[in-house]
Amino acid sequence: MANEMLLKYGCNPNQKPSKVFMEDGSELPITVLNGKPGYINLLDALNGWQLVKELKAATGVCAATSFKHVSPAGAAIGRPLSDTLKKIYWVDDLGELTPLASAYARARGADRMSSYGDFIALSDKVDVCTAKMIQREVSDGVIAPAYDPEALEILKSKRKGTYCILQMDENYKPNPVERKQVYGVTFEQGRNELAINQELLSNIVTENKNIPADKLDDLMISLITLKYTQSNSVCYVKDGQAIGIGAGQQSRIHCTRLAGQKADNWWLRQSPQVLGLQFVDGIRRADRDNAIDVYIGDEYEDVLRDGEWQKIFKVKPEVFTVAEKKAWLAQNTDVCLGSDAFFPFGDNIERAKKSGVAYIAEPGGSIRDDNVIETCNKYNIAMAFTGIRLFHH
Questions:
Q1: For residue 337, what are the domain limits?
Q2: Catalytic residues
Q3: The pLDDT value given to residue 2
Q4: What is the value of pTM for the model shown?
């Protein structure tokens, strides 16, 4: 390890010089095992590492996240995958998955469009199964506390040997006060060391006060994910993984809609219409993902018109009609939703219900809390007020 690391440039190529360093003279907590990390890579790596470390601490299960542009595109713990999830995440050919590989399959698979070119953070030592999964995805780099020797060699072969591989010091403890500069002005604040646990979810303010243990885990996953997502942000979670993350929206309802649409897309990808698509041989993974995204969206004609579908599919798919999509989406239930700040109006609950939300965690404190609670009661949604805001910038 060293005290500082010189970088090629900052956020953009014109922003030079650039480096990261420890102001107190101590050693950096990261070691570069391969490749050359960039400025944004390191922002993603350090935020992602905090997220997976906290997910594991809260749930006791290994965790993974897929970061893009300083927000997670997906985050998950290592619960086993169903055959359907293995298929839509394109890992059904890898045999038995380790818990860590399952966590990354979920994190990457939640929003494959956004995860393209991600920076990965993993809570545990990287095993061969996880390395093989990462090897075939388009990714900028990975950070983890350790690597199996064979797994490390597999990862070193990516991107013609230039793949960025970082090792994190698990015992590193940051200074409790953090600083950054904007326009030459130094900002200082206490680090957000809030521990997210089930105690935060004890104040259930709705008529329905039943939140099962597995849903408490999912709500914690949503809140920990939000803790490292650019605000405003909301996060839909199901079965141990984020299925829709909305980041950086100025309006909370826009954020709820954005994340809800991502959650809907995740569910639509599991429909018989999508599982039955017959792709041409040799299609690239990214092209396949793009085609599915268009097919389930409003611009489906772009991949179904004559002269286009033949480039993608062996057999022209039937149109996935609005009625069929609505009927399929109605089957997605028991979804959890977290919000980094209070919902100001009941319209957010109305939108969340359309994506199967049955459990919510949010700070509370709006002058319209009564309207939000009333809307939850209308749909028998159980909602906890955490009393804690989770803005991240």
A1: 197-268+329-385
A2: 68-69, 232, 393
A3: 83
A4: 0.96
